[in-house]
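Q: What would this chain look like folded?
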Amino acid sequence: MYRIFTILFAVMVTAHMTFGQGFGRIEGRIVSERNEPLTGISVSLEGTSLGTTTDEEGKFAIRMVPPANYTLVANSLGYTTVKREVAVAAGTTTTVYLLLPSSATSLNEVEVSANRSGEFIQPIGSTATKMEAPIKSVPQSVQIISRRALDQMQVIRLEDAMRNVSGVTMETGFGGRTDIFQIRGFRTNTESIFKNGFRNSVRTYRETANIQQIEVMKGPASVLYGVSDPGGMINITTKKPTAYTFQDVQVTANSFGQVRPAVDLGGAFNESKTFKYRLNAVYEKGDTYRDFVSTERIFVAPALTYDFSDKTSLTVEAEFLNHDQASDRGIFSVGGVVADVPASRSLGEPDNVGIHQNRLAQYNLQHRFNNIFSLRHASNFNYSSEQRTVVEQLSVVKGSNSKIRRRLQDQYNFERNFATQNELYATFNTGRSFEHKAVVGVEAAKSMFDIWFKRAAYDTLDIYNPQYSSKPKPFDKLKLGNAYRDNTDLLGFYVQDFISINQRLKVLLGARYDIWEQENINARDNTTTTQRNTALNPRVGVLYEMFGPVSVYGNWSRGFQPETGQTKDGDVFEPVVSDLLEGGAKIGLLNDKVNFKAAYFNITRSNVPVTNPEDVNFNIQVGEVQSEGVETDITGEVLPGLNVIATYSYTDARVTKDTDESMIGTAFRGVSKHSSSLWTTYELQSGMLKGFGFGGGFSSFGDRPGDAKDSFRLPGYTRYDATVFYGNKRLHAAVNVRNLTNIRYYEGSQSATAIMPGAPLHVQGTVGVKF
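A: My prediction, written as structure tokens:
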């Protein structure tokens, strides 16, 4: 702790020195009347040489602005010029939001010549408040990974990006076949990954080609999103249609044999720019570093936007994903020791099959009534299915340290989710000192999850001398393991007011009331059970701008997760409840080009079901778990062209109450007490090599419990990565080397018989052309 406070003190002194340099900053976003980001808009200060252009999110930043009153001008061919009076004070940032109407008389299109996909640091987000707001003003810990950062890292899977988020450790979801993480000690499941604000429940890896940015909000998200995991939520924002025309074609390949061509197209169908499109498409095929685990993926994601007027607009998006990849549960541990085998060693069979499909459709209708009120109506439909026929490990042969029993499993499951959100926004003042950004909303969701699987014993396998396909697969001996369907309905009502008092004190007040109902139809037992839960989840947050770029904040929020099942007396379980206490500081360094955040958190999860000591066949809700820790993040442009993401987290997560006294004090599976990461790149800003860059970083994790009882540990590790890249108006290329020192490490584990080795040294390269 002494080291942490020393670092905090040094940073605050630096911030104070920066604050005294006498410059300010203007940042903001330019959107259409329906709040759609506008790219390539010229933003300047009238009568000066200061200016910039908006990025793909419509965001801009003008730095090193002398204190004075200015007229900010936003214009571009195809749009009406808008002017706004702004005042800039030393050491502060002025935030400006502009609505830019299209011009029917101007038929020329905007040419975006920059090769950069937006700013490395994204100062504005919407996940934490349901409305766009500067992250530095929100009294909660939020981290954003921009598209530019994703491109530099050559992110193909979501986990490649999440390595650079504080408090996040990797997981092995559903046998290594979907995105699962641990945030602040708690495992995320399909309830806590969102896409454009809608729950995105799938059992395959989410595609990254159409991701614009990723926002990670720490702590329970129930106040706005209903059911959520205690540690936090991940919200993916997808790429949107553009008014300017472009085509980007690229090919990515790696040293494991994967090849991945992709296209990204955008533009307008008509001369008035009111009908726009975006299309992302990917084909991926090749091997992985794991034996018998190859991949083939087809992904197509079209998006359309139509502006009915300067106040009403509709965006429709769809995703089509087919992904063939067999599940893979990794290797195993015996007597607390992980088997010493190559990272490629598989315990499956060469003919294992995994077929995944995902279909998504969303629409977002927005209408602005006037300068105060606007309305959003949006819906989401998601369908996913999975078919897998696999031989996989079951248990270690008693008395052996090398042999494992395997089973044949034939499984099919599919899931349908529908949700609609209706939200009324209001921006208004009460008196001279109070500025309000309020939202009132209602969400209705309906989902169905259906699964059946059959199993049969197969053989034993020696992991040090594996003999695959030793005998025919016993399909004639498969027996039904389970077959059931869950029908779930959710109705939520929520309200929030984000209040700014004298521009220095920010107060965030909100609450949501949810009604959750589920029907379970078990075809194996011919039984039907129903359950109903209600929950009221509030949030209170306060942030105060102490001086210049330094703010301090605190918040408390509550979350919930329904718990299925019954007690011995036949009573249904109450929801599992999570309480977050968080406090910290946010500092904008170098005129807000670099953001520093530090947070202390304490999450208590209560009503956790544990074994009934009077009857081990039933559970009672007296369990409690707690996660406490500290996180620090530094993100931004330290010098022109020099970008950095640096994180450190300390997480102490363990059981605090249980009927089994031996479990009290047990650390959470997969959670490192200490973890850190660094990603930094430098890009030349002028000369013949302008656009050439290089960099790298590391991700480091301490040792972690390998299972729920902490019976063995995954060793700590530090993995180093490096990159070299180049980009201009037409060409972009990059080469990334991952696991530079070729260390042996483990991504995570579900149990002693499901441990996933990390990838060895490999190279990934991308080359693309823009038209």
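The chain has three domains: 2-99, 128-236, 237-770.
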